[in-house]
Specification:
With 310 residues, the protein is α+β, with helices and mostly antiparallel strands. Helices cover 20% and strands 39% of the residues. The chain contains five helices and 16 strands. The radius of gyration is 19 Å and the shape is globular. It binds pyrrole-2-carboxylate. Pyrrole-2-carboxylate (PYC) binds next to helix 3 and helix 5.
Length: 310
Amino acid sequence: MERVCVIDSHTAGEPTRLVVSGAPALGGGSLRERQRLLGEHADWLRTSLCLEPRASEAAVGALLCEPDSAANDAAVIFFNNNGYLGMCGHGMIGLVATLEYMGRMTPGRYRIETPVGVVQATLHGRGRVTVANVASWRFRKEVAVEVEGYGVVTGDIAWGGNWFFLVDDPGIGLRKERLEGLAGFAKAVRRGLEHAGIRGDDGGEIDHIEVLGEDGEGADARNFMLCPGGEYDRSPCGTGLSAKLACLYEDGLIKPGEVWRQAGILGGVFEGCITLVDGKIIPEITGVAFVTAETELVFSEGDPYRFGIC
Ligand code: PYC
């Protein structure tokens, strides 16, 4: 087994682990095809990077790839402890900040492919990045779902590069001291959605649950985000903020260009606004990432957990 080198960063506390060497060859197919090959034939990369004993289960892995189109600068596949992501906002900020750290990007604007579309990332310098995300929209408003222990709960279903169910805090308290209660509620909501067969408009699973409320510390709102693998997002979640911005715009609560400051459960803030392009909502998310480690993963012969505790 080859050694794999990674560079770690965090964006508002949420880790991103960029593979810089040792990744398996995925051939020259489309990015979606390469994502499929990675999942089917080389999932060891994801499990080794994102699971114990090498990682915190909150880690999002990023594999930098050649773009499908010469019009784009790069392509990336994101993955986590559970599987593969369409897009990842904090991860995109982490990727660009890491490429700056490596001397491979200087301030400017870059077009980066993801399996769900092209995003534009603007590196401002010193790890500060604005991501103009894929088009985002609200699919359904005020969807009622039966949630065990909470009765009927209503929320919106929106796309921000992943599928989200956005629901108000039922009174648990959006504070990190309440993580257990928030996670319990969000997991119950997810089970309720699954049980009721409620999905996104493409039949996609709604695998991110965003619990929202007031911030109380100066931001416009605070969230708790349950990720697909049962972990919570330490950051305000870029794709979740995109989904929220789409809902705010559709409710007439923000105008194009108006800044919305979204705090995550640890208090880190992303700034977001929207622009309209051909009538579509394009969220722009700004945050900062910091590089934390350069690591070489070793796959020791005989180690039963060399590909992670699966
Ligand atoms: O920032 O979009 C995001 C994200 C998705 C999952 C974890 N972070």
